[in-house]
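Incident review: delayed structure delivery

Summary: a single-chain prediction request sat in the queue longer than the usual turnaround. Root cause was a stuck worker, restarted by the on-call engineer. No data loss occurred. The affected request and its eventual output are reproduced below so the record is complete for anyone auditing the incident later.

Affected input:
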Amino acid sequence: MFLKEKLINTRMQKGEDIDPFLTKVQDIQDELGPVGEALPDTKILCLALNSVSEEWEIFVQCILGRDALPRWDKMWSYLL
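Output delivered after worker restart:
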C-alpha cells in the first residue's frame, strides 16, 4: 500500500529532467513487482503522464489523443 501511494504521489518537479523522473517511477514499479502489486503498463503510463511538469502538457495531450496508448517502454523513449 505504501509503494502504491508513493507512486501516485510522485510528481515531476519544475526544471527536473525527464530521465530521473521516469527512473523514480520505474524504481517504484520495480519494487511493486516482487510483492505482486506491479501495475499494468496503461496504469503506470497514465500515472506518469499525469505527474509530469506543466512544460510537458502539449506532449501529454498528443499522447492521450491517440487511438491507443503506447507501451511503457515505448513511452519512455518518446519522452527522452
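Verification: The chain is about 60% helix and 0% strand.
Action items: add queue-age alerting; document worker restart procedure.
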